[in-house]
Design brief:
The structure is a homodimer. Chain A is of the alpha+beta class and about 400 residues long. Chain A has helices at about 50-60, 80-95, 115-130, 135-140, 190-205, 235-255, 275-285, 285-295, 300-310, 340-350, 380-385, and strands at about 10-15, 25-40, 60-70, 105-110, 150-155, 160-165, 175, 180-185, 210, 220-230, 260-270, 320-325, 325-330, 335, 355-360, 365-375. In chain A, strands 1, 2, 3, 4, 5, 6, 7, 8 and 10 form a 9-stranded mixed sheet that branches. In chain A, α5 runs parallel beside α6.
Amino acid sequence: MTKIIVPGFRFAGVAGGIKKNGKPDVALLVADESVPAAGVFTQNRVRAAPVILSERRVAAGRLRGVVVNSGNANACTGERGEADADEMTRILGRSVGAGPEELVVASTGVIGVPLPMDRVRSGIDSAAAALSPTGFTTFADAILTTDKGPKVSVARAGDAIVAGCAKGAGMIAPQMATTLAFVVTDAQVDPAWLQETLLAAAGATFNSAIVDGDTSTNDTLLVFASGRAGRVGDDRLKGALFDVLGNLADMLVRDGEGATKLVRVRVTGARTDGDAQLVARRIATSPLVKTALHGADPNWGRIMCAVGNAGVDIDPRRIDLDLGPVAVVRGGAAVVLPSVEEIEAAAHQVMREPSYEVRVALGLGSGSALVTTCDLTHEYITINASYRS
Amino acid sequence: MTKIIVPGFRFAGVAGGIKKNGKPDVALLVADESVPAAGVFTQNRVRAAPVILSERRVAAGRLRGVVVNSGNANACTGERGEADADEMTRILGRSVGAGPEELVVASTGVIGVPLPMDRVRSGIDSAAAALSPTGFTTFADAILTTDKGPKVSVARAGDAIVAGCAKGAGMIAPQMATTLAFVVTDAQVDPAWLQETLLAAAGATFNSAIVDGDTSTNDTLLVFASGRAGRVGDDRLKGALFDVLGNLADMLVRDGEGATKLVRVRVTGARTDGDAQLVARRIATSPLVKTALHGADPNWGRIMCAVGNAGVDIDPRRIDLDLGPVAVVRGGAAVVLPSVEEIEAAAHQVMREPSYEVRVALGLGSGSALVTTCDLTHEYITINASYRS
């Protein structure tokens, strides 16, 4: 990959000793000046200290940068955790000449253990000394925990570039908390438009990607826009932002703990988009559906069962269900022609593919939703059931 | 076990050829006359034909009996399925001299395949010829699918007996649909009291038992009271009913697909019982929590994360969390004395037990809930990911 340079930004990633394995764990993203910024945060009611701090500060619509640490989530750490998060921004602020209110923080790692602040302090100082316009990939490396590798996506929007990176293997990695994602662009934007567009893009991408249905205490998505490339057209920039976030969300699911398949669940014909979303999410999180996806078992009764469990008012007699191109249910009843056996065999073939679509049509209205999920495998159990010590 | 005899009832179970393995698959429970009866059915919006029929008929408060088949759920089978369910009650009615409106039906097995009615008809006729006051255990055998063995529980209520049986290994067994449970007593009751008490008992037992969080299209719980033993006191009978259903629900969880542990999740201090129930269920269904239970991993951050994801308004700073006798969180923050390592080791010891309690105190009110769950294991994946053919 060629070097990713986004005019107006510098990046760094160093090993500060927070992780016991010596891998990079302190990352910095700093704009040359205060720039338009927007953020989306976890909807979990238990929120880590950095989430509480960052959500408040990004509300102003402009930021200088973010300090990220991996290896420790700074969650369930009480008042000490909140003081530590604030101090992280003060340390960075002194190095780069910014006020703490212009800086935010994101953390990922084990929950309930206080941050080793001596290592965090020296790590931030080392990283600040290493800040460079070509440091994007070192930043992307230092935010990882159990990911198989870095998740980076870049798109063009006219003369501007949109570069994003993310971490996460499962909505929560083992003992870890978090999806983190950071996007920078040199396009010129209005902060309010950026926040609104980011919310829409997150809804269609990250918030529709499901590994195990759990939302962590630390999930954070931030975007910064330096404006160096000038205005490139809102639609064009929005398209590039959706592309980058969509690619990163797919990478999260493909790297989902133990995942071997990426399956799109498309629900149409709901009374509202919200209803469709509830049905799609119920299908995408059902352990019985996800094990059937793993075994390529065309046991579509489990999908019908999940539809009925979504808490949405449906009419079972109007439901159509397709696995890829194979129609398996029409009007709520099994398709039995040419024969139950032939339909099952065709559906099994579809489900052996690494990626395909499950489509449910509810026949009640025009609400729709598209959710991306993965299968539930032995490897997921192995990763998550292992005792840490 | 001594023979279970409940005066006023006859039972039978035979192999009718619905299951391919030749095991018993047609079961009958018939009262000597029309008796008070009550039922609780699946809350899934996709309901199998027998559920639709039985819920309507039991509303009258009196029944003669039930015909059960295993091996085929008669779900997603359209109008043909509804006609088949009705015909099952007509066949039994002719044999025992009862009108079809006095009889109900329950089915469990594969979804989306029409019933083989020729075998069902001859099976019901054979079973009717075998009806006997000592047939309870043959009945309990014939309702099973992938269960490891029969699930039977008996309690005394004064001079009366309360006998129950259930089937189910997971809220849904592989490719199957259903929890079924049947209870008979010779106590004398008022039908309205029976329905009300059954609802309360089901809420505290079956509806608080979680294997994988899916509710099938066929779940059915029926109770019949012959009155032969006369009145025994409502509280005494209610106690016996709760005991029998509680035992059966525990048997379901212990026989949960792949389960190796039975864990009680107790939530207190919620604003309402409903809030407590939502928090307890979220913990009890989280794949990340359930894999941690399996690995005896005291990774309590996953439990805090589940609490925050329950969709209930909580104050994270008031949460206390205990694993068995070990306090791990106080006021939303990790307990760090005597040391993080000692607390983790003590919690790990608790989690190595086959059964223990996870307690969450929310500190907001007096709402509480108790839910029973199991761990998520490799065996669950093996059972559910296997392609059927």
